[in-house]
Amino acid sequence: MSPTPAKPGGTRIPSRRTVLRGAFTAAVVTGTAGALLPLLDRDPAAADRPAPAPGPGSGSGSRATTEEFAEMYRGREIRGTATVVVPAGAAADDRVAVAAEPVTEIRIDGRPLHVMRRADGTYLSDVRHYESYPTLLETARAAVDELGTARLAPPAAHHM
Q1: Which residues contact 20 (CB under 8 A, 6 or more apart)?
Q2: What are the CA-CA distances from residue 67 to residues 62, 125, 126 (Å)?
Q3: What one-character DSSP code corresponds to residue 145?
Q4: Of 63, 67, 66, which is closest to residue 50 (Cα–Cα)?
Q5: Is residue 140 within 8 Å of 108, Cβ to Cβ?
Q6: pTM of this prediction?
């Protein structure tokens, strides 16, 4: 291998391999920093906050948080609830509360709308399954917008 040629002023020109290695290293460092930023950018005061008191109906020291709504939207009645039950031993750890899977139920004109929770905490429904929404209420409204005057199909009977 021949040495890197020098410019007339005496400075060396970096080889293609050196430039690519530097670019790759910078990309890896930037990607790693971007992936770790949400974990490292937590509010330190959140750890000092006291855990909420156990909710009603929560047994053996577990706590339950409930989100409920009922409204008329574009002439349709939408109702929904989301209940998250966090085990008693995890009451001091907010990460467990975020990771706990909520039990959700949305009804449009009395018929159930199947809703799924994504890993990032947003929701999507069977009616609008290509777009996710931050709250259950927004998910239900989007389903009503998509349905128009049509009604939700009744739930399919499970045959075994």
Answers
A1: none
A2: 17, 17, 21
A3: H
A4: 63
A5: yes
A6: 0.51
